[in-house]
Amino acid sequence: MLSVICRSALPKYGRSWLSAQVAVRTMSSSEGPSPPFTTLAVSRPAEAVTHVQLHRPKKLNAMNKAFWREMVECFNEISEDQDCRVVVVSGAGKMFTAGIDLMDMAGDMLQPEGDDAARVAWNVRKLVAKYQETFSVIEKCPKPVLVAVHGACIGGGVDLITACDIRLCTQDAWFQVKEVDIGLAADVGTLQRLPKVIGSRSLVNELALTARKMYADEAKSSGLVSRVFPDKDAMMAGALEMAGEIAARSPVAVQGTKLNLIYSRDHSVAEGLDYMATWNMSMLQTQDVMKSAQAVMEKKSLKETLFSKL
Amino acid sequence: MLSVICRSALPKYGRSWLSAQVAVRTMSSSEGPSPPFTTLAVSRPAEAVTHVQLHRPKKLNAMNKAFWREMVECFNEISEDQDCRVVVVSGAGKMFTAGIDLMDMAGDMLQPEGDDAARVAWNVRKLVAKYQETFSVIEKCPKPVLVAVHGACIGGGVDLITACDIRLCTQDAWFQVKEVDIGLAADVGTLQRLPKVIGSRSLVNELALTARKMYADEAKSSGLVSRVFPDKDAMMAGALEMAGEIAARSPVAVQGTKLNLIYSRDHSVAEGLDYMATWNMSMLQTQDVMKSAQAVMEKKSLKETLFSKL
Amino acid sequence: MLSVICRSALPKYGRSWLSAQVAVRTMSSSEGPSPPFTTLAVSRPAEAVTHVQLHRPKKLNAMNKAFWREMVECFNEISEDQDCRVVVVSGAGKMFTAGIDLMDMAGDMLQPEGDDAARVAWNVRKLVAKYQETFSVIEKCPKPVLVAVHGACIGGGVDLITACDIRLCTQDAWFQVKEVDIGLAADVGTLQRLPKVIGSRSLVNELALTARKMYADEAKSSGLVSRVFPDKDAMMAGALEMAGEIAARSPVAVQGTKLNLIYSRDHSVAEGLDYMATWNMSMLQTQDVMKSAQAVMEKKSLKETLFSKL
Amino acid sequence: MLSVICRSALPKYGRSWLSAQVAVRTMSSSEGPSPPFTTLAVSRPAEAVTHVQLHRPKKLNAMNKAFWREMVECFNEISEDQDCRVVVVSGAGKMFTAGIDLMDMAGDMLQPEGDDAARVAWNVRKLVAKYQETFSVIEKCPKPVLVAVHGACIGGGVDLITACDIRLCTQDAWFQVKEVDIGLAADVGTLQRLPKVIGSRSLVNELALTARKMYADEAKSSGLVSRVFPDKDAMMAGALEMAGEIAARSPVAVQGTKLNLIYSRDHSVAEGLDYMATWNMSMLQTQDVMKSAQAVMEKKSLKETLFSKL
Amino acid sequence: MLSVICRSALPKYGRSWLSAQVAVRTMSSSEGPSPPFTTLAVSRPAEAVTHVQLHRPKKLNAMNKAFWREMVECFNEISEDQDCRVVVVSGAGKMFTAGIDLMDMAGDMLQPEGDDAARVAWNVRKLVAKYQETFSVIEKCPKPVLVAVHGACIGGGVDLITACDIRLCTQDAWFQVKEVDIGLAADVGTLQRLPKVIGSRSLVNELALTARKMYADEAKSSGLVSRVFPDKDAMMAGALEMAGEIAARSPVAVQGTKLNLIYSRDHSVAEGLDYMATWNMSMLQTQDVMKSAQAVMEKKSLKETLFSKL
Amino acid sequence: MLSVICRSALPKYGRSWLSAQVAVRTMSSSEGPSPPFTTLAVSRPAEAVTHVQLHRPKKLNAMNKAFWREMVECFNEISEDQDCRVVVVSGAGKMFTAGIDLMDMAGDMLQPEGDDAARVAWNVRKLVAKYQETFSVIEKCPKPVLVAVHGACIGGGVDLITACDIRLCTQDAWFQVKEVDIGLAADVGTLQRLPKVIGSRSLVNELALTARKMYADEAKSSGLVSRVFPDKDAMMAGALEMAGEIAARSPVAVQGTKLNLIYSRDHSVAEGLDYMATWNMSMLQTQDVMKSAQAVMEKKSLKETLFSKL
Lengths: 310, 310, 310, 310, 310, 310
What we know:
Chains A, B, C, D, E, F: It is found in: Peroxisome. The structure is a homohexamer. Chain A has eleven helices and nine strands. The first copy, chain A, is of the alpha/beta class. Chain A folds into two domains: 7-247, 2-enoyl-CoA Hydratase, Chain A, domain 1 (Alpha-Beta Complex); 251-304, Orthogonal Bundle (Lyase 2-enoyl-coa Hydratase, Chain  A, domain 2). In chain A, the strands form two sheets. In chain A, strands 1-2-3-4-6-9 form a six-stranded mixed sheet, sandwiched between helices. In chain A, strands 5-7-8 form a three-stranded mixed sheet. In chain A, α1 (65-80) links the parallel β2 and β3. Mean pLDDT of chain A is 90; it is low at 1-29. Chains C and E meet through α3 of C and α3 of E.
């Protein structure tokens, strides 16, 4: 299904690697990460769909220092890229990610600097806040982010996927909130987002306090993922199809939906309704309503409807 | 099980259609909506149980302009009606509802008035707020509201049912968050309430961003509905039985329970406990506690216990 | 599996009954509650694990006046006990608990004092607040609390278990939110915590408004419990094993995890992340990170790692 | 300064009494309240300015049952009246208001109905909520409300003025939080709004707990009022002038300012900024910015600038 | 004005020192603190008025370890004491208080225990939370607390007075937020309450960041205190008179007022109104409304009205 | 008092202009802004004190496009600059600032781009959010920021100063919330922060709705500024002295104080206390407490105490 056109065919990178006018139809990049990135491979497998791959397969996509910085740059660009309407995140190689790269990060984590405990603390706080931002950018990105997990998703991987909007996995996937095993309370998102992502608090607590593995079936029945696929190929095809469905719809509607769903999570229903009404003061003044309504009445596919960029 | 006594047997309507002293035992109204309503048929199928039917079967119960206004009037009256202790909502005809009546509503939605974009926005906001109120009245009504869904429940239908307290459906029911298909972020409750109604955030996002259908089995496993019945007759019988169980209990206990469950949804546990204690300052001073306790000790059914009206 | 060493072998009680230096390896106490308690039997079945048994088996562990007070004392001591890292709660005899002991409590509940309705209300509020504290102490205790339910868990029992961190049950267990049957809105935690503990709001409302029983399978599929065991022996063995896993990990990591999971429940994601970063300013300065990381690298079990007391 | 044209010259009342096209230039209505009102006299003393007078001078503008209902009707109409951009509230006769009309209200307040204390409580809550709404409508009205106080402002009068946006008074004015004198905690706004209206918490508490009078000078220095005038004529002239200044400005800017100031009071700065940005998505798309900017550059008065109605 | 009857005339202490039936008419206690307290002298200078004196005059009422514990015990007892309706706090000797007793507290503050920085932190948090409680009990006490300050009020003294309801001072009083001078951010209430107690944020920040002294005049104009008296005798007479005014009013009204004023501080206006209505469901059912209304109509002093105890 | 050493003596700029090791003792920069800035002049008039001058005197320090960007860069650098402990902001030339530079900004504000009203709105929101950040960086900067205002402070100037911690002004200063005059609701901070900065809500509303000028005396009595100086020289000397006082104190204490004061503003007292205790878990482990306590006991000035950098 996916015709592979090598990512390096893109004419230029840096500031504009995402806004390439030629649609790059690939879900995988065989040679390695996309410059200027060293840990991420970014491609455009279908129109308006951006694919971000964790791409250190020999290191099991472990999250090293570069990764934390590159994710922020990557998603900041995606947020601005008018040619992208939806994002798919996956992992290259044998698994989604082995989590934090302890060897690479040890200096930061185990030997924070400072003249006394308070000054060490001050630096620790800045560091943690910076790492939190790495996954919060996914949430702040107005385009929906699908994540497709195969094999292991450990530690920082769980922090990452809970910040995404839609979670898919393969039958062989497993998830592990690992932090308690290395003497930490998970501090870059899992403890904050996991309880708002799945419905069983007893399960959340068990996972976070015992660091036990959770396999695909329990991930599905508990609601962590909304679909399980037999293998990675099927999952990537499914993810791309779902991404295509989203990309075909009005970006005004889609991005407003994501943003208000996140707002609702953190507010009362009454606050959410008020914000929604204020949001739609302008957003209902879009041509997209008329275009979409017309497509519905004419029973045409939305994929044939042309919406302005956003 | 349900002896059908035509709704029109009610002696008078308007202000007092709900407080009829004769118990009207019907779950369906064959001839049409209950004046002064044109889109709703209201009846009393069992003591203390009010049945509100969406009743434009030829139009698939599509929500037209009249509907939005009538729901508010209807539930405001129910809130005041001391003879009603529980409400059942269902749809007449082939399905629960096809959602918004685009033809009837198009003027409001597609051509809002105003001299400039800000003034159009001002009018849009008032309109959206008014429509939001249509479903918020269900939540504000202190009596529990059960909703029984058969066939399709589309768009505005999902907004409606998420504002109800208990959701039941038939095996052939399906649900669709439709708004994104017509260029809108759902703004009358779905985006605010659905994530607080079911436990899988990935599923909520998928439904809202792709507008895909969800069938009864997934609705049950995800927790959107708490019971699935083989067909509509079985469901209505089940709904009436459950309504009867609730109606038999102390209205002080039942309505206090609904109100505090909603309060808890929007507050921290500590805030919820404080409000509950303040609420029960007066509510524990009811005779109903003594009456109920006595029934328990004498192993009598609560259906034989007479509670004062509330 | 559990060698029974009688609780009375403990050298002294009162202030120090929990910090006994000899490890008491028992999950049950045959003779009765642990003085000074009359409703609770407290033991140490494994290192760093405290077992709290509801222990009025002849009265089906019904919650009498003494119980409400003793729970507070018991968990306050556990909170301070540096030798305890995790708690297991269970019920002695035929069932977990029949709930409130109506006979014993009737005076308080049915005949509150006061010269007028306002003064009665004032006393009611103090009483309710005091009872709420009985279960809130479980939540305030920084050590994780597992609860293992067999047979019936009725009324106050549901209030109790929703305040625990991890819920397990036997195949024959059932749960009942009973309060509405005796004319009350549940006011010591169920209405506040149950909706944040399981993902289906429709189910929560149904349980609270109809007082119907929920059996083990539905408790599992709805997420109320995260594991179901065939019988009580298997469950207690499973609970002890899980408790052992938690007790083996860094108490700085474990208790910080519990505390931040509870904080997150009641705050937005952004607030939760900020608090977490502030919390870890000091907590990441623990030796436990180094010790744990070393164990991971040396592939040693954490059970062989010695962490300082907390 | 104020040419008195009798309010009765208005061609018709009811639905349209506010939208009279002829500007009614009067600040006082000598004959009595404006039908259909019995306690309020409504007039249009200047273009786009609505004057609402508490008008039961023989009863010292005491708040009787009719008053609580009429205020809601009056401000609901004002909210919809596109010819009104600002409101001035004052009292007819010797003083602003003596507060609640104990004689007229005694039935409601002293003998609430209900079969037991819980059912009485239920009715009390509905009553209090209804009375709270009487002053909350002032806050919900998007047009700024100035209140001009002369003589006494007692009890319910303080609840009323704290819901207004700008407070002015005469040198002989005094204010009294009276409720504690009749055995009540003030429940229709004073305890909620007064602490957010003036800066000294010690003073707020003193006033509310002792019911002592506060005179104009302390009202000014504490910030309750922002201006003091020597007498009522000067105050009404000043109020009309200030109202004229506000009425001359863009209604999009003015009403957005009021609404966001109230939003900010009840939210964190970050929440307020987010809401403001969302609000201005549409509101900055008004022609009024261009018109206003042009007037500024041409150094013309805004009174000569014609803004579309809102 | 104040007839001095020595506090030691009270028949018994301990559990019942507050509920003495003979009215103790004294504002000062010449010999020293009231057993079992070593830092506080408690007396009853007028009916229903409790006077709590900081009483280590030779140590300038510096806050030593005993003080932090005794304040909690003292206010817990006052909260339960039905004979007390209002509290006055003042300082014995030359000044109100010199703040924390650095010598006595140094061990706790400068040498917290723990095997690593995280475990030290754990103990620090418990300590700070315990000290915070010392002043929070004033706020939790439902009876209004007036504080009368003469001379210096330094460091912990400011934490204390901001937790009181009404602040009075002498002309020679001065206030100093001292913590920044000893390397601390004030953590037992000043930084949390001072900004909600006075209206000028610039002043709050200046005081907290520079530790400069603020004298009586600025304390009055900024709203920290609501009254300034020429000397201590005049202030104590004024405080007693104000306390008498409060004590004469319905305790249902007075304590409900305090509680709702504090609730309002921490909630939006809408939340505050909702809580108030729920609170008054029961509280308006008091006889005190009728008794108070009757006194008003008969123009009798409330001091002659007998209200039941609360 | 201020020896003028020209800012250009600093060896290098850009990344390191702030961390110059030679103390630059100047409060004014005669030649113009500090490269790379074109609208700001940055200097170090005393040890650990950074002076940021709005520096477009010929344009009355009007805020042009460059200004909005440079403020963010400038304060981001200051946040990281360990040699800076306190900041003073002032305006060069005749006045503090004339506010927004309408000519330079007109394109952005009056002609936002987009294919329909929704897409214009999307761009407007990003723009407003970016401008909000310009002043929020002042608040996020952990070092206290004093602002010294002379002459006019108009429009955006008020947004700026309300984000500062301490406000000072000259006798000839005046303030004007100008936005309503150009058809806008002030959206970069004034409506959100002004009501939390001064105590009189009536005054806030009057200023924001009428755009009238407020002079120094009212600014002082209302609490907007905490000190008024006769002229600019006196004010700058006073500002520098106050900055020196703050710079001499422990940076751990000072910056923790600022951060917690801001946290408290946006949270309940209970939340603020909890955060404070968590913050001080690490911060009380600083050497600065011991150093400061020692200085106090030895009655030495803190200016002689050497604290480690933060």
